[in-house]
Design goal:
The complex is a heterodimer of chains A (about 260) and B (about 625).
Chain A lengths: L2 E7 L8 E7 L8 H14 L22 E2 L2 E2 L20 E5 L8 E3 L2 E2 L2 H10 L19 H11 L6 H5 L6 H12 L8 H14 L10 H5 L7 H15 L18
Parallel strand pairs in A: 1-5
Antiparallel strand pairs in A: 1-2, 3-4, 3-5, 6-7
Helix pairs in contact in A: 2-6, 3-5, 5-6, 5-8, 6-8
Chain B lengths: L15 H8 L5 H4 L3 E5 L3 H13 L2 E5 L17 E2 L11 H11 L6 H20 L25 E2 L5 H18 L3 E4 L2 E9 L2 E9 L5 E5 L2 E4 L20 H8 L4 E2 L4 E7 L17 H4 L1 E5 L16 E2 L1 H5 L9 H13 L11 E4 L1 H7 L1 H19 L8 E10 L2 E2 L12 E3 L17 H23 L10 H18 L7 H16 L5 H21 L11 H25 L23 H4 L1 E6 L7 E6 L14
Parallel strand pairs in B: 1-2, 1-9, 2-5, 9-17
Antiparallel strand pairs in B: 3-4, 6-7, 7-8, 10-16, 10-18, 11-15, 12-13, 12-14, 14-15, 18-19
The chains are: A alpha+beta (about 260), B alpha+beta (about 625).
The structure holds flavin-adenine dinucleotide and FE2/S2 (inorganic) cluster.
């Protein structure tokens, strides 16, 4: 197969960036999209041009590294990750445009690589259950119904790729935050910090410069793990619940149990 | 000259760990605040260690080359994690998990380490539940289990086909908490390129910032490597593209012994390679073997489609060869059986490199819904990659390099031969002997990180006086210089070949000569070919771009260069081990029926190789003493 590729090249954060056209030949239909780009890079290297920068690691749809907007759609025409997209999905001779995730909160590092550390900072703001290692009770002490565990697992399947942000006109991270908040809010272990977590993570999301949710659901449509927008509704409820349930004055400033000064 | 002191405590097996923990010295809480620890790696082992050390009050710096700790290769583990909980009341116990692991490893691991692993396994599950890992549950709310490759009890805990992901997200969340508390400083997109050793002690690392290209040093009181395995030496493997040997190999060159490098596991069930450009093999979880049956047509070169081949004309070769374990035979045996049957010309699919993994009986007996719920995501993945619907026609599978039991040598405290350098997770050699059982790597990574290292490192820190090491220290500067020179040398590459093409050639060579079956002549040939290939690499490779920016070609070329060196170590080890044990199969040592022949009289030891500048590596031996189990011939017939 033969393709005309229009690929975003940008030499660094300060560079303006542009689409550059490349031709590729002898592409087999059972090649993955990333293997096809490997071929492009091989050609560029042998011609003495700098290869394209783009991210991948697991190549099996689970690490969330790969992140390309293909013909305007994050991860391309199938509802999966780029690394799981195969060239048989494209008509021979097609022109394919390849761009990075675009969002204020995801600045471009080089070519097709963006900085998604904003997601890590949202997680650091409260995306955890603060239990120490050691001393956990037996796992069967907490009975969790199968359906409940499955729903938590649905939310927990998020791979933090950021396609939801890239697809949203407002570059909102609501689906990501909703998945993370819901996962823990659905489990008994997550209850003690439920209120605090929802508030802290939403605040962090705003701080990072993600836009607000316009209820258009483009996020769900591109999510490679089919995370449902119902979790956004759940996040909204969690957030509302958190704002209504102000902590009682006595516990306004809960002491850090690790602070050794008391 | 290195010495191998295993530091295994004396006395009864059951109480070794408890007694050892009690005899270990502790670091006082006030002192912990002054102690810095470097953790390289943020997979299950690294993230669990870094978060726990942070929680204990140490100042931790954690590094990974991905953009986020949550993307470490552990994320890809599918099948599950073992623990001797005996929730199913099917006869499991710490003793049984211990015994299964020792036996599965073909009696090439340390009893005391493995027993401790089995003991700690139960706490891991509890810890993960507490962190919010959504393990599969029964209708009544209890934790669900499945049985997994090579054992007869149901002790594997799982989260659909995404167990590694969920366990890593659990550890990552704990890590995120410690980052938020200021106890851990995370350095993503940062690659360790050398180890700093001062007065014989590991005191830091030299890293390259993968975004700015800056080369920097970090110093600390101890260094922990949790950098994963080196299966990518075979080029095609089930590992993530970035998985590499650099950290452990560089540490080897600074004095850490490398143990059992030739013990590399080939997983029986991956999607077969199809074409030359292919860059990765995708694993189909072994859990499929619980319900799936492996077969090939009895007739060589039978070109009928699988549905058209009637039952009597099929060879269910695992059930035939290993009637007691059938399709659940351990990985090494299953992989070799697949290879043999394909070498005999009975393989199916392109190039005859494949056998059927058939779930139609399970679908008929248990219903489509049950099978879908259990394996739905695997069927979907298979369809995406091959374009075939495995609900209609059986999957095709072929073995693929998957895991490395070999790694840096560590003692019972998980410390390498360089004092102050600890090695955990897949990067060490410790617990799996010559073959790892399914679902036991996640267990080992978390055991090391959550429950073992945090104790043992404390003793080292409490009993070692270490003065300050500034970034201006001579040894630090020397290490930085090594890194700078090497990066500069790579960047001079303006040849006509890509690093990938050398990686591919090396991979093919290793697969053919040091892969699933090895023999003297082939290994000697490999030992001649590797230096030549390496020489060519340094002359012909093209590495474009600059060192002062984000440069993936440079990162990759550096990793390939290290594979090109460490490959020799694998071959030396495979050549010297004149026996077949676990995943290491020497053609010269087999029964007339093709079963491996282990040689306990001569090879019941861990081989630990010492680096010698400009010379051949030197072999040291740690004898394996079996006080509690009697090594038997591993029969699964
Ligand atoms: C497809 C697949 C499925 C699997 N399924 C299972 C399963 O079901 N059950 C099971 O028990 N095991 C399974 N395994 C094995 C298991 O996943 C791994 O052995 C385990 O996750 C390794 O964990 P780790 O923490 O040691 O290393 P990794 O998860 O590999 O992490 C390595 C870390 O080190 C970092 N790193 C490496 N080199 C450097 C460097 N030079 N500088 C800085 N950072 C560095 C990386 O960034 C990463 O953070 C599977 C493996 C594969 C490939
Ligand atoms: S490379 Fe890991 S999800 Fe695509």
């Amino acid at each position: 197969m033969t393709f005309t590729l229009k690929i975003w090249r940008q030499n660094g954060p300060a560079d303006k960036g542009r689409l550059v056209t490349y031709q590729v030949r002898d592409i087999s239909p059972s090649m993955s999209f990333i293997e096809m780009l490997d071929v492009v890079n091989q050609q560029l290297t042998l011609k003495g041009e700098e290869p394209l920068a783009f991210e991948y690691d697991c190549r099996e749809g689970i690490c969330g590294s790969c992140s390309l907007v293909i013909d305007g759609v994050p991860h391309g025409p199938d509802r999966g990750t780029v690394c799981q997209l195969y060239m048989r999905r494209f008509p021979d001779g097609a022109t394919i445009t390849i761009e990075p995730w675009r969002a204020k909160a995801f600045p471009i590092i080089k070519d097709l690589v963006v900085d998604r550390s904003a997601f890590d900072r949202i997680m650091q703001a409260g995306g955890y259950i603060s239990v120490n290692t050691g001393g956990a009770v037996d796992g069967n002490v907490l009975l969790i119904g199968k359906d409940q565990a499955e729903t938590a697992m649905d939310a927990a399947s998020c791979i933090s790729c950021g396609a939801c942000v890239a697809a949203c006109k407002n570059a909102s991270a609501m689906l990501f935050v909703a998945a993370k908040v819901s996962h823990l809010a659905l489990l008994p272990q997550g209850q003690p910090e439920r209120t605090k977590r929802a508030k802290a993570m939403v605040a962090a999301m705003d701080r990072e410069g993600f836009g607000s949710c316009g209820n258009q659901y483009e996020c769900e449509a591109v999510c490679p793990k089919s995370i449902s927008v119902r979790f956004i509704a759940k996040l909204n409820r969690e957030f509302l619940r958190a704002t209504i349930e102000e902590p009682s004055p006595l516990a306004e400033q809960p002491a850090d149990p690790h602070d050794e000064s008391h | 000259m290195i010495t191998l002191e295993s530091k295994v405590p004396h006395g009864p097996l059951e109480t070794k760990w408890d007694r050892h923990r009690f005899s270990e010295k502790l670091v006082s809480p006030t002192n912990k605040r002054k102690v810095g620890i470097i953790v390289v790696g943020s997979g299950l082992a690294g993230a669990s260690a870094a978060s726990t050390l942070g929680q204990l009050g140490y100042q931790v710096d954690c590094f990974c080359f991905q953009d986020s700790p949550r993307r470490a290769h552990s994320i890809a583990a599918q099948g599950g994690i073992n623990a001797a909980k005996n929730y199913q009341d099917d006869g499991d116990s710490v003793e049984r998990l211990f015994y299964d692991t020792i036996k599965g490893g073909d009696f090439r691991s340390r009893e005391a380490n493995v027993y401790r692993l089995a003991q700690v396994s139960m706490q891991i599950i509890d810890q993960c539940v507490a962190l919010g890992v959504p393990f599969a549950r029964e209708y009544g709310g209890q934790l669900a289990n499945r049985s997994f490759g090579g054992v007869q009890v149901s002790r594997t805990f799982y989260c659909r086909g995404q167990t590694g992901q969920q366990l890593l997200l659990g550890a990552y969340s704990a890590l995120s908490w410690q980052i938020d508390r200021g106890q851990v400083r995370m350095h993503p997109r940062t690659e360790m390129l050398d180890l700093i050793v001062v007065d014989g002690h590991a005191r830091g690392i030299v890293v390259r910032d993968l975004v700015t290209g800056a080369i920097r040093s970090h110093t600390a009181e101890a260094v922990v490597l949790a950098t994963g395995g080196y299966s990518n030496i075979f080029f095609l493997s089930t590992n993530a593209s970035g998985s590499n040997v650099t950290a452990t190999y560089r540490a080897w060159k600074q004095g850490a012994a490398f143990a059992n490098p030739c013990f590399t596991q080939i997983h029986p069930t991956a999607i077969p390679p199809s074409e030359a450009y292919q860059a990765k093999l995708t694993l189909m979880s072994e859990s499929l073997r619980n319900d799936g049956r492996l077969w090939v047509p009895k007739q060589k070169g039978d070109s009928r489609s699988p549905e058209q081949i009637p039952e009597p004309e099929r060879d269910y070769f695992l059930e035939r060869r290993y009637p007691r374990f059938g399709n659940l035979a351990p990985r090494d045996l299953a992989s070799r059986a697949v290879k043999h049957i394909c070498d005999d010309g009975c393989g199916v699919g392109p190039g005859g490199l494949g056998v059927y993994l058939d779930l139609s009986d399970a679908i008929a007996q248990q219903g489509l819904e049950v099978v879908q719920e259990r394996y739905g995501n695997l069927f979907e993945m298979y369809q995406r990659i091959t374009g075939e619907d495995a609900y209609k026609t059986p999957m095709r599978i072929y073995p693929a390099p998957h895991y490395t039991m070999g790694g840096l040598w560590v003692d019972y405290n998980l410390m390498s031969t360089v004092p102050g350098l600890f090695v955990i997770g897949e990067a060490n050699f410790a617990d799996h002997g010559a073959n790892r059982l399914g679902a036991s790597s996640l267990m080992q990574g978390l055991a090391d990180g959550y429950f073992i290292l945090p104790y043992t490192i404390g003793h080292y820190l409490a009993t070692t006086k270490s003065g300050p090491v500034g970034t201006g220290h001579l040894d630090v500067r020397a290490a930085e210089e090594r890194v700078t020179n090497r990066v500069a040398r790579l960047l001079r590459g303006r040849g006509r070949q890509t690093a990938a093409s050398y990686h591919r050639s090396l991979g093919r060579l290793m697969w053919d000569l040091c892969g699933m079956a090895r023999e003297e002549a082939g290994l000697k040939k490999a030992l001649e070919a590797i230096p030549a290939l390496r020489e060519e690499f340094w002359h012909e490779v093209a590495v474009l771009g600059s060192g002062a920016t984000f440069n993936q070609a440079l990162e990759y070329a550096g990793r390939v260069a290290d594979f090109l060196e460490s490959a020799e170590l694998l071959c030396y080890d495979a050549l010297h081990r004149e026996e077949s044990c676990g995943a290491h199969f020497r053609e010269e040592h087999q029964t007339p029926l093709g079963e491996p022949l282990r040689d306990d009289a001569n090879f019941s030891y861990v081989s630990a190789w010492e680096y010698v500048p400009n010379g051949r590596p030197v072999l040291h031996k740690e004898p394996l003493v079996f006080e509690f189990v009697k090594p038997t011939m591993r029969t699964y017939q």
